[in-house]
Amino acid sequence: xxxxxxxxxxxxxxxxxxxxxxxxxxxxxxxxxxxxxxxxxxxxxxxxxxxxxxxxxxxxxxxxxxxxxxxxxxxxxxxxxxxxxxxxxxxxxxxxxxxxxxxxxxxxxxxxxxxxxxxxxxxxxxxxxxxxxxxxxxxxxxxxxxxxxxxxxxxxxxxxxxxxxxxxxxxxxxxxxxxxxxxxxxxx
Length: 188
Fold this sequence. Notes:
Blueprint: E1 9-13, H1 24-35, E2 38-43, H2 49-60, E3 66-73, E4 76-88, H3 102-105, H4 108-111, E5 112-123, H5 126-131, E6 132-134, H6 141-147, E7 152-157, H7 173-178
Parallel strand pairs: 1-3
Antiparallel strand pairs: 1-7, 2-5, 3-4, 4-5, 6-7
């Protein structure tokens, strides 16, 4: 299979309700319009290092890699898709010009544990969302969002690139609890 067919992407939950009067997507779009790219910072647990390396490797090899930003609204989930340019846990000083100004006002820039550089934001297509499956479970992301509290999910389109779980595979509770650097429990 070609690398693009096996490409993994990232889904990140966010909420405008955390900071009154802020439209997260609009604020990030304004920076893209002015500077051609923007950093989206995430507070909480970072992505596992191996996943950061995987995403950056895909990007380095010119494999289209996406960041899906999803927010729950009264009418359901609202999806925004971005073209991912880089993932890092350390934002360089000169990159700080590519973050929305409200990050500084609300100390988001100091609290963020992982950064996603995006060059374009657009409304995600319903067909792309329907094709997204969580890599670790092979379940549709739309189903997983309703049953999981996780903030981030590695996804791929369809079931390409997903490792099938063995029926004999089991994780002890102790092993599962030791896997706290990850965004979801996986068998690889």
